[in-house]
Amino acid sequence: xxxxxxxxxxxxxxxxxxxxxxxxxxxxxxxxxxxxxxxxxxxxxxxxxxxxxxxxxxxxxxxxxxxxxxxxxxxxxxxxxxxxxxxxx
Length: 89
Fold this sequence. Notes:
Elements: H1 3-42, H2 47-82, H3 84-88
């Protein structure tokens, strides 16, 4: 296997992980920001108030995006299986 092939495979895997994690983290980050602004405006310093909305949005993002994420993972897996003869040979 040439170093260029390994770098391309590693780059593809790293990009896939970045996209899949971002799809879950970004909605949670947005809701966390909204709750933090609300807490700052109302002077409520309750830790559980920020935890529950982020948890629910994260679970919702996982539920909505699970099919899309698994499709991306399966496409990547099939691509890796397809590239086995090129990498070995």
